[in-house]
Structure formats: structure tokens, C-alpha cells
Amino acid sequence: MSGTTARVRAAGSRSPGSPRPARRGWKITPWLFLAVPLGLLILFTYVPVANMVWYSFTSWDGLDAVKEPVGFQNYVEIFTRPEIFRVFLVSVYYLVGAFLQLVLAMYFATVLSFSTRFRNWFKGIIFFPYLLNGVAIGLVFLFFFRPGGTLDALLALVGVQDGPQWLGDPSLVNVSLAATSVWRYMGLNFVLFLGAIQSIPTELYEAAELDGASSWQKFRFIILPSISQIVGLSLILAVSGALSVFEIPFIMTGGANGSETFVIQTINTAFKFSKVGLASAMAVVLLLLVLLVSWVQRRFFPEEKGDLA
């Protein structure tokens, strides 16, 4: 009884405003919630990346149990064979298409952020392609660009006969594939820009109107500076996506007629020519290029420290 009485007196002597002592279980609980996602992240991301780096220093063919180390031989081969890096010229088409889609997405996001007739309907139309599966989009546009397909039928309505080989002509195939990518991914950038523009206080627009600012001046001095962080994020996604584009050209052409990208070349090197070590080195080089682009983006679009204040 004496021990119980002492604990009751001690509890009653605590001031109402004093903080309760932290329990050890509350310190462990957040880590228990993070254990499963961290485990999955390590298992399916960091472990494969570590294996890829190790394979890049070997001559493994993907089948042999022995992985013979070859040092930096794979990396030397990558940088001494011009045909490996020549496929990056194909990424220029997707890079131009990515900048075009950023401009279009910003334009539509700016227009539809204000009172526009049927704006919710237009928002759904623009964002809908991003919800579709990439394989389905590739198959649909494969029939769209094929000879005698949908595009040729539309051109025939305006008197254009014997249309070009959209996917068979090396001078047009990458333009057609890049246009498909613009159609698919513009919805993502549109939603990002739309959310950022709608978060701008309306008082800024009202003050600009009182000063007699035009629509272009509102966009240049209010909208564009306010969404600069989102623009930087979209740029890094666009550049990294242009460097690592894969599914649309792989499904529609398989890399034929000069449409082979660096990722398609890496896949063929690993599974068609059984050079997993060289393909792993190519994947590491691509990863380093994406990280370099991310670092450059951080330099030009630094995070504002006052955002979280």
C-alpha cells in the first residue's frame, strides 16, 4: 500500500502544464511502419542497382555461373565504340518533343486555370492519355500510322493521296514516335502546372489588373516566377525521359528504321547478344547521365528555403 500511495502522490504532484515523459514505444513505432516499405525499396531497387554495378565489371553472358571480372573493359568499349553513343541522337527528337509538350501543357494550364467555357471537359481530355497503358497507346498509334491507316484516311479526306511511310521512312519515324510521346505525357505536365497556377493568390492578379497589366505581363511576372519549381521538376523529368525512352519505340517499331534508342540497344545487348556485363555498364552510364542532369537542374533551379517556412 505504501508503494501505491507514493506513486499516486508523485503523479498528483506533476504540474498540469508539464510534458509527459516520452515512452520508448513511441520512438520505435515510426520505424515499424517504415520497415516494410524500406525493406521493399532496398530489395527491389538498391540491391538490383548494386548487382548491376557489379555485373558491369564482368564479362557475364547471363547464363554462366561464373562471372569473370574484366575491370573497366566494358566502360572502355562503350566510350570507344561510336555506334553505341550514336543512338543518343534519336533522343534529340524526344527532347524536342518534350520541350514542345511542356510549352503546350503550360499554355493549356494557364488558359484553363481561369474562367473558360467547358474547362473541366477540356481538362479531362488533356489528362486522359496519361491514364492509358503505354502498350495500348503503342498498339493504337501503330494502326494510326500504318499505311492505309487512320492518318492516311484523314489525309485522303483533304485530297492527300499516297501519304508517306510514317514508321517506315527513317526521316519521319522518329518524328512520328516523338509526336506520340507528346500526346501521351502532356497530361502529366498539364496537371502539375495546373495545380501550381491555381495555388497562386488571386490578390496578385487583382493588383496587376489595377496596374493595367496585360495577360502576357501577368504570365511573365506572376505565373512563371510562381511555378518555377514545378517548371524545373518538369524539365528534369522531360530530359531524363528523353534519354531513357523505351516502350513506345519498342512496341511500334522495335528500334527499326533508325528508331533504336539507348535503352533498346541496352536490352538487345543483354538478351539478344548475351552480353549482360556490357549491357550493365551501359545502364550504369545512363544512370550517371540522369544523375548529372538532375544535378544541373538543381544548380539552375535551387529549392527556395522559404517554401517550408
Characterise this structure:
Helix content is 71%, strand content 0%. With 309 residues, the protein is mainly alpha-helical. The chain folds into 2 domains: 41-84 and 261-286, no CATH class; 88-255, MetI-like (MetI-like fold, Orthogonal Bundle). The longest helix has 32 residues, at 24-55. The radius of gyration is 28 Å and the shape is globular. The two termini are 53 Å apart. The mean pLDDT is 85.
Task: List the defining traits of the structure above.
MetI-like_sf, 0% strand, membrane, MetI-like fold, transmembrane, Sugar ABC transporter permease, 309 residues, transmembrane helix, mainly alpha, 2 domains, 15 helices, globular
**3D shape:** globular
Arithmetic mean of pLDDT: 85
Look at the structure and give the CATH class of the largest domain: Mainly Alpha
The CATH topology of the largest domain is: MetI-like fold
Percent strand equals under 5%
**CA distance, first residue to last residue:** 53 Å
Transmembrane segments: 31-57, 92-114, 126-145, 182-200, 221-246, 276-296
Domain ABC transmembrane type-1: 87-297
Organism: Oerskovia douganii
Protein name: Sugar ABC transporter permease
